[in-house]
Amino acid sequence: MNHLETYLAFRKKKQAYQYAMWLISWDQETEAPKNAIDYRSQQIEVLSTLAYEVETDLSRIEAIDALSQDQSLEDTLKREIYLVKKELDNIRKIPKKEFIEFQVLLSQAGQIWAEARKNDDFEGFLPTLEKVIGFQKTMVKYLETDTLKGYDVLLDMYEPGMKTKDYDQFFDTLREKLVPFAKSAAKVKQTFPRALKKPFDTEKQKAFNQYLTGVFNYNMDQGVLKESAHPFTSGVASVDTRITTAYKPDLRSAIFSTIHEMGHAIYEQQVNPLYDETELKGGISMGIHESQSRLYENMIARSASFWMTHYEKLQDTFKKELKQVSLDDFIRYVNEVKLDFIRVEADELTYSLHIMVRYDIEKQLFNGKLKAKDLPKTWNKLYKSYLGIKPKTDQVGVLQDIHWSLGSFGYFPTYALGSAISAQLYHAMSKSIDIDQAIRQNEIVKINEWLKTNIHQYGKLLEPKDLVFKATGEAFNPNYYVDYLIKKYEHILGIKA
Amino acid sequence: MNHLETYLAFRKKKQAYQYAMWLISWDQETEAPKNAIDYRSQQIEVLSTLAYEVETDLSRIEAIDALSQDQSLEDTLKREIYLVKKELDNIRKIPKKEFIEFQVLLSQAGQIWAEARKNDDFEGFLPTLEKVIGFQKTMVKYLETDTLKGYDVLLDMYEPGMKTKDYDQFFDTLREKLVPFAKSAAKVKQTFPRALKKPFDTEKQKAFNQYLTGVFNYNMDQGVLKESAHPFTSGVASVDTRITTAYKPDLRSAIFSTIHEMGHAIYEQQVNPLYDETELKGGISMGIHESQSRLYENMIARSASFWMTHYEKLQDTFKKELKQVSLDDFIRYVNEVKLDFIRVEADELTYSLHIMVRYDIEKQLFNGKLKAKDLPKTWNKLYKSYLGIKPKTDQVGVLQDIHWSLGSFGYFPTYALGSAISAQLYHAMSKSIDIDQAIRQNEIVKINEWLKTNIHQYGKLLEPKDLVFKATGEAFNPNYYVDYLIKKYEHILGIKA
Prior knowledge:
Two copies of one chain form a homodimer.
Chain A: H1 3-30, H2 37-55, H3 58-67, H4 75-93, H5 96-118, H6 122-143, H7 151-158, H8 164-185, H9 202-215, E1 225-227, E2 233-237, E3 240-245, H10 251-269, H11 286-300, H12 304-317, H13 319-322, H14 327-333, H15 351-366, H16 375-387, H17 412-429, H18 435-440, H19 444-454, H20 464-472, H21 479-493
Parallel strand pairs in A: 1-3
Antiparallel strand pairs in A: 2-3
């Protein structure tokens, strides 16, 4: 076998293991019975080991190294080899022993964090957190290159091409323009009909969410809509990209969760199907992924036009409950602004300020200016500074997110980046489509098409920065985001920035 | 590594692949999206190949061969090695090329059969069926031993220890005693309240089926109840044994399907959990498995005592629909006798006569007395002879079952055998438990316990014949079954045999 044949033979195996592990995880999150946990862990361990053996097989490595020098490969394959080579180089740089030790630590850290959060006990989590950060710093050292140092190594894992200096620029813009606006916006008193605060029936919510899958053209022949504790998207190929939602008493919760996840899922469903068996399937980065989910959730589904079109159906579903609630009230309700401590419950206007707190902290942790033990103090100070509020406990403060216990430093900023990119994409899209009209005429498929052509189809073919430039004609520019937010909330709240 | 260590290392891998394939199949039957079929097939092909490589690895084979001579192994391990050696010997006897050719044929035969059934076109299926039978005969030749010849080879695959002469005896008893009784029973005119013939709401059926899982103590922490086109049980270990049901307009359909599948599932859930990581988990044979599902479905859930206890709950669920339906009418309704063409819709009394038709045919096919092309004629003749009716089309006649297109010759007789064994077990159980009282006092858990102690816990540790003897104190005896059926239906229909 030549190098290419060798590589492709291993790719088949890698894909098959990936498929099995993907399905096991989907099953685990959505329906596997409680008592199967140990049995399943045992099988996962064996399958992971087998998959690892495939990925680190010497003949595969040799093939990838050789192919990465081969200029005659066609472009998509060249790109694929670039991506697997990058992954492989990282695996090679980290000593196996340390990598496994880190994984073992992480496998315990999640539980310790959950326990600490439950008991509002930061001190109980601190020793573990310090170890995780220590390991992560060691990993960073191993992975540093001429152009990537320190925290940038981690940032690049979640959003290739974005460094501290890029994020600094982005967050400086937010700090300057958004923070003062959000603070004055939060002072506006909003009131809503009491009917909206009553619990909404789950079965009726299900029916409306089913309706939404049609509105957004989420392809049910290539997906599944199911329930889980926390909503998520899980795709293994364009032909199988599933989502979950969670029904809560608050009517908004499932609606916007489902639409958010559909945004992620439509992205992966619309990747070129020829990539399904390759490494180019799926989304390119966390930031681009989040730009899609946020565009569907916020820019489309929280717009006035959207509810002008679909509120009747919702009222039809909840005849009694929404009889007295006007369209205008409902539109204001889905855009309620509330300064609060919890990121996952934050509104569209203030969401990225929660992220900014986390970014500032991560940056300081990795440039040595902040110690883990001082996290609560810094956390609370930053919340006061950006949102004007101070968490009463660590439970609703520094302990609220799972990410750091998973070692996922560098992940948070992509959430804000995604929101900002969505505004830039929306602006570019509006040059060729009358977006508002498409929404009002129930033709979201037109939006899907534009995104397919300009973003989705490429899968992992293009780097995030190139993708944004190609789709919008310019580099990432956070001003679209700030302008969009200020204009929207000036209108909704009747204030001036 | 010594032989035992080698064997155990391979066992881990085999189990992990088995788990992955099990979950993929469960997902496929219950929720995987339509368009993922090709992608999934590709992954299944790779995983099957990898699993096959593990099973046929020379060092594994060497270890098994050596261990099968090792008298020092403890009993459960000795039994396990016996079972894997038997499997391995069969694999070794069949040339790989022919085995794969047969698998390819079978992978196409199912679709050809489905098409032929749809079009009531036996001739369209005949060439494929002939090829399948031809291959199967060749396989039989490869697998024959000193003690197993011809059709017995196939019978032994599904029910170790049962040969033609055993089944002949069994079916002779049915032919002699049950056929005449069933024919006269079918002449009794049964009428039911019209309310029962109306369609029953699915959501309410779901609620009642959920209630039934509690009644039978089907362990939801080790299982799942879901929907699929055709109800089935799918277990991978005692801690994860799932079932499906299908909701039809006929109220009886889902209730008895669910209970039937719970019978299968409770069996596997109650196998000694220490066997989960071994080859001794799961049920020992198709016949024993069916004896459990039939015992729960028919002997428990179609009994008067069962509905004396639970009909109130059912009436509560379907207040309007069952208001006018008396308990007596309902008990008669769930025991309706109807001579019909379709096996899967057959009642308890006539079910095994449908099987007898298929057994007679298979036996003749494999002893050369019947050619595939004459199947429809023989089928119809046997239906006339055993059930007194003649199918109007092949669609509701010889083409109705999928089994032969899957190459599953020798499987059918275990369905009847299972029913018969269930009666023998019931008789033995009644010596130590007042079964009727347990049912009336909603203590089915007592029945579960007896079955756990006498059948379930053993998993694959004991051969079916030994299991029956151990549990009942005698060899398989079909008279319990015939006596039970005649007594029950004499009472229900008010006739004398």
